[in-house]
Design goal:
348 residues, elongated, single chain, 20% strand, five-stranded mixed sheet, alpha+beta
Length: 348
C-alpha cells in the first residue's frame, strides 16, 4: 500500500473525485498524450477515490471514528458515482480485448436480430435467376421467399458472469491484476462466440428442408494440397445446375492441429493474398472448411442483438456480499448456418 492509503483525509474529497477520471485514464492506459491532467491524477489511488465518494455521500452528522478509513471506502464503493466512474474507465479495456479476439473470425457473417425470439433466416434460393428480357416483353416475377424454400432458425441467448471485487481488493490497489481480469473477461466473451461457431460446424442445426451438409459442400478428406484444390473447385461450382455462382475462396478455417499445415498450403499455392487462414481451437483435430467472402455469400453466421452487435454488456454495481463492487460481463449471441452455399466442409 502507498504511504497515503492509511491517511484518506490527505486530500479534499471533492478534488479527489474531480481527479478520478484522469487517474483512471492513466491507470488503464487511456490517457491522451498532451492532454492536461488534474494535478492529483498521479497522486491518488483506487481506495482513496472510493473513500472520497464515501465522504461526499455521507452527511457530516453521520461521520465519526467508525465511519472512517476502510468503512468509508465501502460506502464509496456502494455509491452510484463511483460505480459509473469505474465502469467508464474499465469497459473499454474489456471491449478492446473482446474485439481483438473477435477480429480473428472474419469468415463469419454477422446477423443482427431484433430480439431473443427465434426467427427464420432465408439463405440464397437457387431457383432465382436473371432472365433475358426482350423488347416489349414483361419482366418475369418470382416470389422472393417461397414457402418451400429452405431457411435457418436463428436466435440469441445470453452468456454472462459476475466478478466480485471485495473491499480488500479495492484497498490493495492492484491495478495490474484488475487489468488482467478485464482483458480476460473480454477474451472469455470472444471464446463463447468461437465455441458456438465450432459447435455449429460439427453439429449444425438443420435447415427447414434438411441437413446443412450434403454432397455439394462436403469433402470428407484429410487436409492436403489435393483436398484443398477439390474443395475450392466445389465452392466455385456451387449454385443451380448449369449456373455456378463462381464463389471465390476467401477463408480457410482449421483446427489448431492443422494451423501450420494450412498456412503452408496457402503459401505454397500462392494464395496468401486471397485466402486467409483462421483457427477455431474447439474444432476436432481433422476438421477444416473453405468459405467464400461472407459479404458476398453469407454462410456460417454469428447472431447478435441489433442494438448490441459487436459490443458487450458490461456493468459495475455495488457488491452486497463483501462491501466492494461487482463487474458484470455479458454477451447476447448465437451461431448457425444460414444456408448451404458459400462453404465446403472437409476432414477425414
Amino acid at each position: 500500500m502507498s504511504d497515503f492509503q492509511s491517511d484518506f483525509e490527505r486530500f479534499d474529497p471533492r478534488e479527489v473525485i474531480a481527479a478520478g477520471p484522469d487517474y483512471l485514464a492513466l491507470a488503464f492506459g487511456a490517457a491522451l498524450p498532451g492532454r492536461p491532467l488534474h494535478p492529483l491524477a498521479q497522486a491518488i489511488d483506487l481506495p482513496t477515490l472510493a473513500h472520497a465518494f464515501g465522504v461526499t455521500n455521507t452527511p457530516a452528522t453521520q461521520r465519526g471514528p467508525a465511519s472512517t478509513g476502510p468503512a468509508m471506502v465501502s460506502r464509496g464503493a456502494a455509491s452510484t458515482g463511483f460505480a459509473k466512474l469505474i465502469r467508464d474507465a474499465t469497459a473499454p479495456v474489456v471491449l478492446r480485448s473482446y474485439q481483438a479476439a473477435a477480429a480473428q473470425r472474419p469468415f463469419a457473417a454477422t446477423v443482427a436480430l431484433d430480439n431473443f425470439t427465434e426467427q427464420p433466416i432465408f439463405g440464397f434460393d437457387l431457383g432465382h435467376d436473371l432472365t433475358l428480357v426482350r423488347e416489349n416483353q414483361a419482366i418475369p416475377r418470382r416470389r422472393a421467399f417461397a414457402p418451400d424454400a429452405g431457411y435457418a432458425t436463428a436466435s440469441v441467448k445470453t452468456y454472462s458472469q459476475i466478478f466480485d471485487l471485495s473491499r480488500d481488493d479495492l484497498l490493495s490497489n492492484d491495478i495490474v491484476s484488475l487489468t488482467n481480469l478485464l482483458k480476460g473477461a473480454g477474451s472469455l466473451a470472444a471464446g463463447v462466440e468461437s465455441r458456438l461457431l465450432a459447435d455449429e460446424i460439427e453439429a449444425p442445426a438443420p435447415l427447414s428442408d434438411g441437413a446443412i451438409f450434403d454432397s455439394s459442400n462436403t469433402h470428407a478428406q484429410a487436409l492436403s494440397d489435393t483436398a484443398l484444390g477439390v474443395a475450392v473447385g466445389m465452392l466455385r461450382k456451387q449454385g443451380a445446375v448449369g449456373r455456378p455462382l463462381n464463389i471465390e475462396p476467401r477463408h480457410l478455417v482449421v483446427s489448431g492441429a492443422l494451423e501450420l499445415l494450412a498456412r503452408k498450403l496457402i503459401r505454397d499455392a500462392d494464395l496468401a493474398g486471397m485466402v486467409q487462414v483462421s483457427v477455431l481451437p474447439s474444432l476436432p483435430d481433422a476438421r477444416w472448411l473453405v468459405l467464400g467472402d461472407p459479404e458476398q455469400m453469407p454462410s456460417l453466421s454469428l447472431y447478435m442483438l441489433g442494438s448490441t452487435a459487436g459490443t458487450l454488456n458490461f456493468q459495475v454495481q455495488r457488491n452486497f456480499n463483501n462491501d466492494g463492487v461487482s463487474l458484470s460481463c455479458g454477451l447476447d449471441c448465437g451461431a448457425g448456418f444460414v444456408g448451404r452455399i458459400g462453404v465446403v466442409r472437409g476432414g477425414a
